[in-house]
Amino acid sequence: MHFVLLAEHSPQTCPTANAEVRALVLETGPSIPKVAELTGVKIVAGPFVNREHVSVVIVDTERVADLDRFLAESRLSQWNSVRVLPSQTLEDAMKEFDNQPALF
């Protein structure tokens, strides 16, 4: 199943402003693809970062427990508040239209 991860941090914990977080990101950032692989998570896109203090990662995994392990071992959740959005392709969502009655 696909998940969209939105990892948001404050300006005070931004790696551009906080030396401790910067050191952590420089240490752990390069290993994120390997951590994903070891925890059974496939990175589909990202991590993408921006000046809004939000990082976006799209992942695919069969087990939510693997995703939780990825978040812990990548240490993303130590300096971010991470929203996990279960997602699917538009094509798959459209297939469900026939199974759901319209509201109006």
Describe this structure in words.
The chain has about 100 residues and is an alpha+beta fold. The chain has a single domain, classed as Dimeric alpha+beta barrel (Alpha-Beta Plaits, 2-Layer Sandwich). The chain is built from five helices and four strands, in the order E-H-H-E-E-H-H-E-H. It has a four-stranded antiparallel sheet with strand order 2-3-1-4. A hairpin with a 4-residue loop joins strand 2 and strand 3. The longest helix is centred in the middle third of the chain and has 11 residues. It starts with a strand and ends in a 9-residue tail after the last helix.
Low-confidence segments? none
CATH topology: Alpha-Beta Plaits
Mean pLDDT across the residues is 94
CATH architecture: 2-Layer Sandwich
Number of H/I helices = 5
Using the alpha-carbon principal axes, give the shape.
Answer: elongated
The helix/strand class is alpha+beta
Number of domains: 1
What's the CATH H-level superfamily name? Answer: Dimeric alpha+beta barrel
Distance between the termini: 30 Å
Largest sheet: 4 strands, antiparallel
Specify the CATH class.
Answer: Alpha Beta
Q: C-alpha Rg, in Å? A: 16 Å
Q: Roughly what fraction of the amino acids lie in strands?
A: 25-35%
Number of DSSP strands? 4
Order of helices and strands: EHHEEHHEH
Task: Describe the strand arrangement of the main beta sheet, using strand numbers.
Answer: 2-3-1-4
Q: Report the helical percentage.
A: 25-40%
